[in-house]
Amino acid sequence: MDRDFFETPSAIAGDLHLAVTEPVGEMVRGVLDPTIGSGALLLPFQRHHPDVPLFGVDVDPNAIRLLGSSFPGLELDCFDFLHANSSNIPAEWKTFGVDAVVMNPPFSERGAATTSVRVSGQEISCARSLAFVLRATEYVVDDGVLVSVLPYSVQHAVKNRKALEYLHSTGQIEWLTSYPRRAFKGAVTQTRVLRWRRVADTVAGPSLDRPSAKSSQRILVRGWVPMHSRRNRRGPWRSLVHSTDLSSLVREPEIEMRRCRSVRYLAGPAVLLPRVGRLTSQSVAILLAGRTVCLSDCVIAIVTPSTDSARELASLIRSRLSCLNAEFEATGAPYITLERLNGWLDHQGFGDLFRKS
Questions:
Q1: pLDDT tens, position by position, 313-334
Q2: Which residues form the DNA methylase adenine-specific domain (predicted)?
């Protein structure tokens, strides 16, 4: 497998850590390295931000296995990030995004060929290293930052003009430190650091706990904890609600749940529903005011202004189960999206519940 991989020296990893934290300060809520290799770029974040979720991707399963045993708490996935389809992308990235991306993509530019990547509905051809950057911008939240090592020539090559125009149109670009040839062992390419910050109100990326499109008073949240990796997470211990726990919450709203590490949390009051499968009266649960939990990626929360409005909304949903079940798309296992659920709530005229004090 030719990964075009050059390990990042610790001094350069420190430079990139500083380039990330300079603009966003200590308020880093999630860091992604989509070409993780040996994990060198995330080590400074592990040392200085021990409670921040760290995500890593590599196409090489051997690299992922080694990191899994030597880098506790790192959330790892093995797939081709550059050409990944939606089913490969972890739910947490798609739902919440990340505050920071730090990366050292393949940069030797062997053969100087271009690579095509689709972003925001556009097909853009550019250097392979820059294509990784474009792909990664899709998961950066408003005011988030991406820092990447790139070949020095990327900035001036005609083939990259459209890609650089896209980056300028979606954020702010800065060219930072440059490194000489052989700064990376085995690489003869001169390199430079790109820093890109997403500016709010440009091409949309994810936003944390984003409200629904149709009601500024209503917040719908899709869970972010994949059950298969719940034991490898970072952050404080919190109660975890999975779809199989909803019936227990219906019977006993203050029941103690299993626990999981998570930096992010949801605070009640809210109504909790399964995202996958058919709804029943025993799967529409209430999260009481004052209770904080983390949610599995099989659960959706509808945040309400008060516990009373949560109870009223849950009761109304239970009375219209057949109507809401019709919104669950039946392609394989039935499921519902935040957009479809939001549209259904609007159609049912439940807006007043979200304006109560």
A1: 999 999 999 888 888 765 556 7
A2: 8-194
**Homologous superfamily of 219-354 in CATH?**
DNA methylase specificity domains (3.90.220.20)
Rounded CA separation 327/12 (Å): 50
Token readout for 333 is 């296992």
Q: In a 3-state reduction of DSSP, which class is residue 295?
A: strand
Name the nearest CA neighbour of 41 among 72, 75, 18, 68.
18
Contact 147, 137 (CB under 8 A): no
Query: How do beta strands 114-119 and 122-127 pair?
Result: antiparallel
Written as six digits, the tokens of 329 are: 């798309």
Check pLDDT > 90 for residue 354: no
23-54 in b/e form (b: 16+ CB < 10 A) is eeeeebbbbbbbbbbbbbbbbbbbeebeebbb
Range(s) of the chain covered by CATH 3.40.50.150: 10-198
Are the C-beta atoms of residues 274 and 296 closer than 8 Å to each other?
no
Task: Considering the chain, tell me which residue range(s) the CATH 3.90.220.20 domain(s) occupy.
Answer: 219-354
Please state the pTM of the whole predicted model: 0.59
DSSP 140-201: EEEEEEEEEEEEGGGGT-GGGHHHHHHHHHHEEEEEEEEE-TTSSTT----EEEEEEEEPTT
- Say whether pLDDT at 209 is over 50: no
pLDDT band of 153, cuts 50, 70, 90: confident
The Cα–Cα gap between 126 and 238 comes to 44
Model confidence pLDDT, tens digit, residues 280-302: 999 999 999 888 899 998 999 99
